[in-house]
Amino acid sequence: MPKGCLVITVSGLAGSGTTTLCRNLAKHYGFKHIYAGLIFRQMAKEMGMTLEEFQKYVELHPEIDREIDRRQIEAAKECNVVIEGRLAGWMVKNADLKIWLDAPIMERAKRVAKREGISVEEAFVKIAEREKQNRKRYLNLYGIDIEDKSIYDLIINTAHWGPDGVFAIVKAAIDHLSPSGDAGEDEKEKEVG
What EC numbers are recorded for this enzyme? Predict the structure, then answer.
């Protein structure tokens, strides 16, 4: 692992494996895990709302999104953190490594169904509706299109690998991360020098 202070963001849609990866990274490297989804869920619970009800409430109260995002940006000032959130890669502009996890919606629906003890069909509908609402909200609030993956350093389709395989890919990326952030420049210096 590169020496110094690392800030890694992990983003992805529901059921893509972001929490599993972040927990594995935190355990292996001793990173602090900042989880925007947990903050969101806790706020829903505090207000006595289901996740779906809170999702609709947040659409009318953008200050909630801004508070979650502020906490992510603040956390990025720490060393050796992994920040998990759909917009983490967008919010933490100076992250050393920005990761997007993806999987086909049916695969993600199966995972969510298993996790939440609901049918795959119900999970599919919930995910599709939530993603539609989130995309609209992020566009309106920040001008961010969640489907734009151009800011990410590493994009992994988690349908192809289990949690251990995804972790191995990300571990390799972290362990070989260029300290300057531009591996091409390091290579040029080696060639010239």
Answer: 2.7.4.25
Would the annotation count 18 as a binding residue?
yes
What digits encode the pLDDT tens for the residues 54-90? 888 888 888 888 888 887 788 778 889 999 999 999 9
- Number of residues in the chain: 193
**37 assigned binding-site residue:** no
- Using DSSP's 3-state secondary structure scheme, residue 149 falls into coil
Write down the pLDDT at residue 108: 96
CA gap 193, 26 in Å, rounded: 37
Residue 14 marked as a ligand binder:
yes
**Cβ atoms within 10 A of the Cβ of 143, count?**
7
User: Does 158 appear as a known binding residue?
Assistant: no
Band of residue 181 on the pLDDT scale cut at 50, 70, 90? low
| 165 among annotated binding-site residues | no
The ranges assigned to domains in the chain are 7-105+149-178
Is 12 a known ligand-binding residue?
Answer: yes
Report helix, strand or coil for 90. helix
